[in-house]
Amino acid sequence: MKPLLIALWAITAREALRFAQQRSRFISALVRPLIWLVVFAAGFRAALGLSIIPPYQTYITYETYIVPGLCGMILLFNGMQSSLSLVYDREMGSMRLLLTSPLPRWWLLLCKILAGTVVSVLQCYAFLGIAAAMGITIPPMGYVYALPALVLGGVMLGALGVALSSLIRQLENFAGVMNFVIFPMFFMSSALYPLWRMAESSALLRDICAVNPFTHTVELIRFALYGQFNGMALLWTMLATMGFMVLALWGYDPGRGLLRRKG
Amino acid sequence: MTGQDVAGLEVSGLGFSYGARRALNDVSFAVTQGAFCALLGPNGAGKSTLFALMTRLFTTSEGQVTVMGHDMARAPRQALARIGVVFQQPTLDLDLSVRRNLRYFAALHGLAGREAEHRIDTALERMDMAERADEIARDLNGGHRRRTEIARALVHRPAVLLLDEPTVGLDAEARRAITAHVHGLCAEDGLTALWATHLTDEVWPDDRLVILHRGEVRADGIAREIIGDQSLTDRFLDLTGAST
């Protein structure tokens, strides 16, 4: 057991250190949701009326509504960022160091995912802190309840990132991930608008949103922030986490020959 | 399964294809414990593919790799624990110090604390790198970066050291020094080394020599016996050059 924990600690420390060294990455990871919160929400507030839906008990402002979705956005972008760094590591060779370790490969990949999650969750709290400073507050205990939800969401999206990284052969193909994964996942979810709003324009779109695991991650975080438990969201998020994990492990199976030279 | 009669590294009947392109075909050789074996082949001979199979970066259904008696397919973790690898591409974290690079690697092998520090010190001393332990990898020259990588590959005390063209990009002096260092590891510490190269001057007359060309073993024996009265370069070109 001890060797596994030593590796987990080292991989997490390395990820955190690398993150601390790239201050611009931290700032851009914070600025992105803040722009949404300040600019986008201001424009949308007028256009979008919100009724009282669970977990909210009163009318809320649009800014308050999108805070959990923007936490999800941080987790999503970070998960994809770590997959980008995996592709980079693979091209640069440092991934080989990890994969030739005698520790079980599933554990090494899990360590990578957990390390990325630690960084993501720290960013979420930095964002929640700034939001609170702007007057968008949540019940104090909500910040505590949100922690497991954020961690699970981070693991789910990190696993998705690892799975995707095994499919991306070259760094240049990463733009495709932006177009075909990040944007649809984010926009076809309850992050920016409640599902009943979506249903007004298209029932089909609403159904797509309802099966999108990212929707459930956002709802899990939203309910947790208000001290409530959403069993359905938890179930979906856990199922998706397991699914993405299996995909990630399959992606890095040595029998697939992922690290083959090109050509 | 241990003891002197077990080969340090044994490859038998290994084959591999990239789609339709055959990269390795029925490659077999065994390196006795404590021997320095040069794997000589021109670019594209299949050396890197062979390394990837020996380090389980990918696997094949054709043939077998065994490290100190451990089958890479059936007991990958035991086999991987006994090998140290120096990859052709540099894999140091350039922003970290030499010591922190080695510490990270030690942790990937489940080593930490005083035991890890002790092993790191020993490995760095072995490669004459002890006084550079706290330098940032980026500030080291090419030769010292390579030595750091070899020291790193020794931290978990492997029995077999695999080096994939470890002298690429180094000047003549650094190449000579590193070649001598690894010969020393075999002679003095009983380490088994497989040294892939396309440079004939890195092969010493008493070395074990395997010549690989187009994915097949073309010669296998003691270097001076394979060479006969030719120079190694001429012999190598005889075996490989005519058809390239």
From TrEMBL, chain A:
PROSITE patterns: ABC_TM2. Its main location: membrane. InterPro entries: ABC2_TM, ABC2_TM_bact-type, ABC_2_transport, Alc_ABC_transptr_permease, T7SS_ABC-Transporter. GO terms for molecular function: ABC-type transporter activity. Belongs to the ABC-2 integral membrane protein family. This is Transport permease protein. Residues 24-255 form the ABC transmembrane type-2 domain. NCBIfam families: phenyl_ABC_PedC. Keywords: Cell membrane, Membrane, Transmembrane, Transmembrane helix, Transport. The chain crosses the membrane at residues 34-53, 65-86, 106-131, 143-168, 174-196, 233-252. It comes from Roseovarius lutimaris. It is found in: Cell inner membrane; Membrane. It holds the Pfam family ABC2_membrane. One of its GO terms (cellular component) is ATP-binding cassette (ABC) transporter complex. It is a multi-pass membrane protein.
UniProtKB/TrEMBL annotation, chain B:
Gene3D superfamilies: P-loop containing nucleotide triphosphate hydrolases. Belongs to the ABC transporter superfamily. Residues 9-239 form the ABC transporter domain. This is ABC-2 type transport system ATP-binding protein. One of its GO terms (molecular function) is ATP binding. It comes from Roseovarius lutimaris. Keywords: ATP-binding, Nodulation, Nucleotide-binding, Transport. PANTHER family: ABC TRANSPORTER ATP-BINDING PROTEIN, ABC TRANSPORTER ATP-BINDING PROTEIN NATA. It comes from the Bacteria.
